[in-house]
Amino acid sequence: MRKGAKPLFSFLRQSEKRDLAPFLTFLRKERMMSTQGLAWWQQTIAYEVYPKSFLDTRGQGTGTLAGITAKLDHLASLGVGALWLTPCYKSPMVDNGYDVQDYLQIDPSFGTMDDMDELIAQGRERGIRVVMDLVFNHTSDQCAWFVESRASRTNPKADWYIWRDAKSDGSAPTNWRSIFGGSAWEWCEERGQYYLHTFAKQQPDLNWENPQVREALYDISNYWVNKGVGGFRIDAITYIKKPPVFEDGPADGEDGLYPVHAATANQPGILDYLHEFKRAVRDGHDIFMVGEANGVAASELDQWVGANGVFDMLFEFSHMHVPMGAEEIWCRPATWTLTDLKRVLAQSQAATAHNGWYPAFFENHDQPRSTVNFFHDDGPLASKAKVLGAVLLTTRGTPFLYQGEELGYGNASWKRIEDFNDVQTRAQYEFALGEGLSEAAALAACVRFSRDNARTPLQWDDSPHAGFSTAEPWLRVHDDYATCNVAAQEADPDSPLLWYRALAALRAARPELVAGDWQELLADDERILAFERTLEGARCVTLANFSGEEATYDTSLVAGLVPLAASLGEPQAGTLRPLEAVVWGN
Ligand code: GLC
Question: pTM above 0.90?
């Protein structure tokens, strides 16, 4: 047994878990400076904030930047060193900020540029760097660039977006379906042409072929680099390069349309643009870039990340597609087993083992809550959250937590389509009806998969509106807020929140969990997801039972190890209780 293992376990005993913040801050700052040949962002934990739903300090029903600054200690207690903010630029908010009107201004609903500067500065004090979301595939239709572009076919920005003539019968140039549903083309009277929108019609696609467009985007990025941000999450990046020829595809639904994703994602030549982007923005700065890359397979990762790639990390969605289905059409979910999920997770690990770095995640603002009956069998939400937390915080890569994940939220159980706000949810509902589903079945698909599930206001305490705001929140607070909230979980030694904090501390204290190799164990087991992390004689084994039944395994897997963290109390070697996770180590 390795010296030091026992004291660490006792260090993590429930009674002591509450006071980890100073220790984590110390470690985070240490790590920022160096060690093990890894960059700061490889050694830290990232946390995604959806500002509109985090904390409202102005009594207006929507979150503010000052609210995030006020809660930085909550992030620090989770070992967070990178804070990814979804877009808070000036926006008409059709897609909650992913429709950017002005990349150099803060939307007044969130506060001011001074508030942003304060957040960046206060974050730095705690070893937390702000990461901005760059939405560069498209802008808002209210963006000055588009307003100019749409005015005529000859203005200086006429070619900044994707304009095409109608077909001879006046219909759209192709039969592509936008990601949110309906045609991906919108008619513009002034120009007498259609423009392409991969997402909502208020989100026209930029024309990356135009060097002026690319220059403008790089300048915007560098404005934020100069403000001292720690990096960027790059939105929907696989769609920036369009195919050389625009043509119809075979319809795959009753609407006669073909998915724009299939027609345009990850086109040859896209990496040339992104290498240029990297040279103009990333090179020479101590920042990281993580791309959102739906459509890039694990087998292609080596061209996208690492020394020869374009990003430091890439959110690829192969594991999310296991339960969701690759096309993400909610009324057509996939059927799958745990080994399907394990196979794709192992592929992503293999692809980033020697090249690039893996951003591990189970939740973000586009996914339903991971504790739903989605990745694992049914059972108590807290147990399910702890199982996923154990995997996320001990795997190889930078863990990306999403706000509220540390509390083990469930999905919102709304009963009417009117309760949903999300532009995609409404489109998926209409699509499902068009496919012949009943209203009840279409609603059930939305209840299960809607992005609003992740966007309900964060639950801070049991006061009205969950302590999120003194005003009526923009989106209904989850019904369970009185019992599931930060304050309640801080007082409960068995809560998911304290489990996440303990795991964050464990990760910070055990270099093999950060820098060690990753090896899958029990690859064919349908109940247990297991892997080991090893570094210079140190070894940790994570065993997570995703099933609602007891699961057994050969005790030789943990021979010579002691339990470092156990989700359901004192563990037993060789057996996992339903939805139990244990991390062993030497
Ligand atoms: C990305 C964002 C999503 C947004 C879309 C359009 O997928 O994560 O929230 O709706 O891009 O910008």
Answer: yes
